[in-house]
Amino acid sequence: MPRPPEPALRRARPTPRDLRADVWLAGGLLVAAVLSTALGSVSGVFGDETAGVEWALLYAVALTAPLAVRRRFPEIVAVIVSAAFFVAVSARIPEIYVGNVAIFIAMYTVGAWVEDRRRAAIVRIAIIVGMFIWLLATTFQAATAPTEEGLSRVGLFSPFVAFMLIQFLVNAAFFGGAYYMGDRAWAAALERADLERRTDELEREREVTAAQAVALDRVRIARELHDVVAHHVSAMGVQAGAARAVMDRDPDAARDALRGVEGSARSALDELRHLLETLRTTDAESGDPSTIGLENIGELVAHASATGLPTTFQVVGDPVDVPAVVQVNAFRIAQESLTNARRHGGPGTTADVRLRYTPDALELEVTDTGRGRGEFRPGLGIVGMRERAAASGGELEVGPRERGGFLVRLRAPLRAGAVAP
User: Fold this and answer.
1) CA 44/CA 29 separation, integer angstroms
2) Are strands 361-368 and 395-400 parallel, antiparallel or unpaired?
3) Fewer CB within 10 A of the terminal residue: the chain, N end or C end?
4) What is the pLDDT of residues 382-395, one digit of tens each?
5) What percent of the chain has pLDDT over 90?
6) How far apart are CA 261 and CA 416, in angstroms?
């Protein structure tokens, strides 16, 4: 199935803190522009051609006030600031420093905040081209003006030409830096947005994984409770029925059957207690997943025989080390198989348990001679046995036999790394 495309990254919108910072920036630059204009007027930057103070104050406001909304309307702010700078220099307003700072900030903001990258490039390139056309025009006017004042124009590389080249280089570096830094800020913002998105995805995946772990724990608890309760309760039912049947004519036999019921009840409580202790213990504190194992299958067979299901037990091959998980699962599969044989086999049913060790696998086979179970429909018990077989890295064969009865066969590999987690 093709993977769905990832959503397009978008830069985070400006926060109220960002917008407040823009207002403070505009206010600070306004004060700086007023001071710069006043000092420029006193120093006579443009000589006798200096504009009046009222025009200087109007320029300071037109230059800096739009920066208060620079992140909301970056293209409009850049155009207004550039136009104000052009008019101010043309009108000889004595302010030449804060205007450069304002243009740089406006150009940078367009590159850093406009989502339509094509429009951002067009606006900045248009401003840069307009500024350089203006610079070329003023350079041509200065070069052709009929005056002998200022720098010498004699020679191919005269002081005047050198000064003009410096102006071009400085402006190229100025606008190029604003363009580049704006694009870098945009790319960095996208990287942060991507990192935040991936962090959110990982957090959601962690929550899903935690929920799945809880669900798996519930399934494991339900499976363990089913195995423990079904086995012992079915045995108690058989023993209680036997005690009721012989209570009047053979009190001693009834007493023995009731002792069996008591023993089954205590065994069930012990296993339930151990199960609860295992669930309350962290993985780091717990050792084996359970104290039951292959050595307990003999006791299981003896208990089945004592509760009305004659069962034989045979071990084939030399015992080898078996992973604890495989041992627990094999025991529970044998327990569930004998429980089903006792419950569904009918009178006179016998069972046989065979544990076989091979060089590369452990095989457990439980058969019975019951009358059959009609149409075979796997229940929760068989589903649990299949899950245990899969958890052991093996396979399970379950179903009626051709010659009658029922067969459960587990084959679990013993190779290193064969057991699935």
Assistant:
1) 22
2) unpaired
3) N
4) 877 888 888 778 89
5) 12
6) 42
Map 133-184 to HEC letters.
Answer: HHHHHHHHHHHHCCCCCCCCCCCCCCHHHHHHHHHHHHHHHHHHHHHHHHHH
**Average pLDDT, stretch 60-88?**
89
| Mean pLDDT value across the chain | 78
| E strand or H helix at 2 | none
> Residue 373 to residues 267, 333, 364: CA-CA distances in angstroms?
28, 19, 22
Question: At which residue do the structure tokens 């100025």 appear?
Answer: 174
The Cα 382–Cα 405 span in angstroms is 16
Residue 283 in contact with residue 316, Cβ under 8 Å?
Answer: no
Residue type, 86: F
Compute the distance between CA of residue 276 and CA of residue 19 in angstroms, rounded to an integer. Answer: 58
Cβ atoms of 77 and 120 within 8 Å: the answer is no
Radius of gyration of the chain (CA): 45
Q: How many residues does the chain have?
A: 421
- Say how far apart CA 329 and CA 389 lie, in whole Å: 7
Distance CA 184, CA 379 (A): 63
Residue 112: C-alpha distances to residues 170, 187, 318 (Å) = 22, 8, 75
Please report the pLDDT score of residue 11 as a whole number: 72
């423990």: which residue's tokens? 228
